[in-house]
Amino acid sequence: MTLSKRLYPIIGIGCGAYGVYVIATNWHWRFSLLTYFYGGLGLTIFYLNNQYQKRIQDSEIKQPTPFDTFVQNHYNAMKELLLDEDKMNTSYQNSDEDYLSTLKQKENHYTSDLPFEYNSSLIMFYHDKEECFHYYTKCGDVTYPVLNTICRGYVIEKKCLQLFKDEGDLTSMKKDDDIVEVPSESEEEEEEKEETKSSVFYLKRFHQKKKKQKKNKDKVINKFIRKGNVEDYDVDYRTAPLKQYAPKPMDYLSFKAITEAAAAQQILEADSDAEPESDSETEM
User: Fold this and answer.
1) Is the pTM of this model over 0.70?
2) Which among 40, 67, 152, 267 is least surrounded, fewest beta carbons within 10 Å?
């Protein structure tokens, strides 16, 4: 039977009180007093230290931020679709060129909220001619993980998962946890080469970092182009037609002046046409 750690301070205080009582009644019990006192003090210190370490561990546990939660959006939904071959082949892949060309149209644009107070919304669409995703933000730019998350939601909604090219996400989604990946011969040779290198820690870290950077450069990712902010979007895709100005009212005198000017212009044009004919008659 184990005692609760909360009882340690009580036991310590009780031992101390008992020791004081003993020394007050019999000075021959000094050794017993010291034993009880230091024993109780040790239990108290042990309990307080245990509570302190527990508080430190609790504070070190990182709570997910709104950004951490946001970048996980649409991941599981897309993973389920990728693993379902029937849905992928029948409903969630559309390579028709006419359909892809319509994704540029305003009614097919995709709007998403962002996990930032200063930059709270984003508009995205696929441009078939440039083979990339265009986007507009409320203000400023956003990082690739945010764009990648919104892209997942976009291709799911438009049912064209083949447009999503991020190799890292696709590999992770298609991976089956029950299957152990067997490294290729080239990877095994690289691992053996790493093991034969110097055992100095910083050299090993340097080679591992260099190898990781090389792999990241070769990785296929989605292409995004920022086209501007929301004001630019309103200009590029005007939501309302241009203002139509109503004709100004015209009185009779103005109408008469315009009519007379038009008649005079017609007379001048007729006279200019008649002059070449009279010249030809005179020569004959």
Assistant:
1) no
2) 267
